[in-house]
Design a protein that fits this description.
Cytochrome Bc1 Complex, Chain D, domain 2; Immunoglobulin-like; 3 domains; two-stranded antiparallel sheet; 12 helices; about 25% helix
Length: about 525
């Protein structure tokens, strides 16, 4: 959607969103929202939603919400194309989302994908984003119908495309919750219902079958492992009931109608499969990390100065999902008034320094710093708001070359043209791979947006790292001066707050380049 077409759409907002079928007043937060929204209020909300969408969402979902943003080619599962009119997490009988469904998805994100949780946004911003996403979905679905009408020479469909799109995106009655009953659930009966209706895809133990399924649009999907926290929605009885009755529109999971008692026992059994707390294990949260002041920042991950340092658990989302992806890490930070040290620790079963195959892939970590109060999540800065990237790899290719030692001569080289003869003037050497240690080199670059990364100047020496792998875990200490190194660097001062984000690569699983796991922004506070 261009800014011009967006403005034109905003002028029609009240016609689309205040129609009785589409206006979901009961879903609105009660504070700050009147029972009947005025046209001005609707337009203001859509304008705010557009601003937020362009800041945070365009990079994956694209300007028009078609799932074709600049980062979309790096994502699996792919970014949702809103123009299909199919949203996964719904609670209506006709499969269209309420605004409350969209807001719930924004709050939680989609664990098992690159879609993070946006629970750190203000409540009114979540509802504004939901309204704008619905606008994009309505326009996108209408455009699909118009294209279909033109392809088949159907002028009637073209004329009715807008009405059909609005009806498609307007939810009807909300599914009714099951009435409460007393007594313990019959888990054996629930297991039998699960076996008959769910086990074909999710497996008898709820861990998900390995064979992938296809979505309606042809993209790959798979049945979720209910025991591992990869839940698209939450694990509350009402949420699981919605998944059963509504299915996941657009996927291989259909709506399922069950007798009330069967449904009740099934929900109880599914909840029993989900370990306590695991449903929130992969949901991002935005926290504050304090960097205490010490006499001198440590240069080792095991230094005693870290013993009393605050440590923050951080969730990461793999941009390209795979079983060995890094989904969590721990952050700690210290400073001495001159330098900042940030320690990053994460589980890694192999501690691979480098792999060879179709290319080279190394374990790695990167920190991103921003002085902006609310930087764009995936944007890597913006014009006038640069971010500073510190990138470490366990082993760099130039260091790999230097690790190749020359051995003593092993005879002489074979003659290139005469079989069986050797050339006495050309000794033959064997290259030996020397001992490999984790690199201490850090690449620093300043970026002002995703497109600026490839052309950014890469500098070495301004920051450095100390890393070790032991007992299935990497620990890497990044050190950098507090003072900015150039106009594009982020200055750090005691008593100030900056934003910090993390990226990790698992070389053993082929992570490299844009195939990585990322966190959302966390706030870093440097103690005075």
């Amino acid at each position: 959607m261009t800014p011009h077409t967006t403005r034109a759409f905003l002028a029609l907002a009240s016609l689309v969103f205040l129609a009785p079928a589409a206006c979901q007043v009961p879903d609105e937060p009660q504070s700050g929202y009147p029972e009947l929204l005025s046209d001005v209020k609707s337009e203001q909300r859509l304008t705010r939603g557009e601003t937020l969408y362009r800041m945070h969402c365009v990079v994956c979902h694209g300007t028009n919400g078609r799932g074709d943003g600049p980062a979309s080619s790096f994502l699996f599962p792919p970014a949702r194309d809103f123009g299909t009119g199919r949203f996964r997490l719904v609670s209506s009988q006709n499969g269209a989302p309420f605004d409350a469904d969209l807001v719930a998805t924004l709050r939680r994100g989609i664990p098992g994908s690159a879609m993070p949780a946006w629970n750190w946004l203000a409540e009114q911003d979540l509802w504004a984003l939901a309204a704008y996403v619905r606008a994009l979905a309505t326009l996108g679905f209408e455009a699909r119908l118009v294209a279909e009408a033109e392809a088949h020479g159907d002028p009637a469909l073209a004329r009715e495309a807008g009405r059909i799109a609005r009806e498609r995106l307007a939810p009807d009655a909300r599914i009714a919750p099951l009435p409460a009953v007393s007594g313990e659930p019959d888990l054996a009966r629930g297991a039998d219902v699960f076996r008959r209706h769910c086990a074909e895809c999710h497996g008898p133990d709820g861990r998900g079958q390995r064979e992938p399924r296809r979505n309606e649009d042809g993209t790959l999907n798979w049945a979720r492992d209910l025991t591992a926290g990869f839940l698209k929605g939450g694990d509350a009885p009402s949420e699981l009931t919605a998944r059963v009755r509504c299915g996941l529109p657009g996927t291989a999971m259909p709506p399922t109608e069950l007798a009330p008692d069967d449904e009740r026992e099934l929900i109880a059994f599914v909840r029993a499969l989900i370990p306590a707390g695991s449903a929130m294990r992969l949901v991002h949260t935005r926290e504050t990390l304090s960097a205490a002041r010490v006499a001198a920042v440590p240069d080792s991950p095991a230094a005693h100065e870290w013993n009393g340092a605050e440590e923050l658990e951080v969730v990461l989302a793999p941009l390209w999902w795979h079983e060995a992806a890094v989904t969590g890490a721990r952050l700690a930070a210290l400073h001495d008034g001159e330098e900042l040290a940030v320690r990053v620790s994460w589980a890694d079963a192999t501690g691979e320094l480098v792999l060879f195959g179709t290319g080279a892939a190394s374990d790695g970590a990167a920190l991103q710093l921003s002085a902006a109060a609310r930087p764009a999540l995936f944007g890597m800065g913006a014009e006038g708001e640069p971010t500073s990237l510190l990138h470490w790899q366990a082993l760099r290719l130039d260091e790999l070359v230097s690790a190749l030692d020359w051995a003593e001569p092993l005879g002489h080289a074979t003659h290139p043209t005469v079989p069986g003869e050797v050339r006495a003037d050309v000794p033959r050497y064997e290259r030996l791979l020397g001992r490999l240690e984790p690199s201490s080199d850090v690449t620093r670059l300043s970026v002002t947006g995703l497109e600026s990364v490839l052309g950014a100047t890469r500098e070495h020496g301004a920051a450095r790292a100390a890393a070790r792998w032991a007992e299935g875990e990497w620990s890497v200490v990044f050190r950098r001066p507090l003072a900015a190194q150039d106009a594009g660097d982020v200055p750090l001062e005691p008593g100030t707050r900056v934003q910090l984000a993390l990226a990790l690569w698992n070389g053993a699983s082929g992570d490299r380049g844009a195939r990585k796991s990322i966190s959302i922004w966390q706030e870093l506070v440097l103690a005075p």
